[in-house]
Amino acid sequence: MKKYFVLFLLCALPFFSFAATKAASKSVVMYVAVQNATFKEKKSFFSATVAELTYGQSVRVVNTNGKWAEAVLADGNKRGWIALSSLTKKKIKKSDFKASTDELALAGKGFSAEIEKKYRKTSSADYASVDRIESSIVSDSELLNFIDGGKLNGGSK
User: Fold this and answer.
1) DSSP for residue 81
2) Strand ranges across the sheet with 36-40
3) Helix (H) or strand (E) holding 116
4) Is the confidence at residue 133, as pLDDT, over 50?
5) What DSSP state is assigned to residue 48?
6) Strand residues in 33-114 grouped as ranges (E)
7) Does the predicted model carry a pTM greater than 0.85?
8) 130 by DSSP, 3-state: which?
């Protein structure tokens, strides 16, 4: 009886291994966990943008490579790469998005509305300048020119 059981296990092992490989290769639905994200043609920050993604938008991840995820948009029309750090497996409902842009920025810095209110009273920080800097937008080409012009190392094209 034990011989038949061992024989069965030896015969079934390749099947279970194949099934596990197939299950691991299936795509996974993930959600954009940042306010805005870019869907790139290649796994590079400076690659052409395929689409702009927003908070809560779902993508089907078909492959991962380092810090990048290759994904297909929910409508199936576009395929591209997105930074894994911009995604979460937790389903995000649009109704979950109740915070304002300012509140999100503060939360990302560890501030709550109450903490900021107290800090403003005791600090002489120039919040207008910080707000102005945070609202500035730099294009990919401007950033690449800055990196190249300054001969900065460590930028990935």
Assistant:
1) E
2) 49-54, 36-40, 79-83, 68-73, 58-65, 28-32, 87-88
3) helix 113-122
4) yes
5) P
6) 36-40, 49-54, 58-65, 68-73, 79-83, 87-88
7) no
8) helix
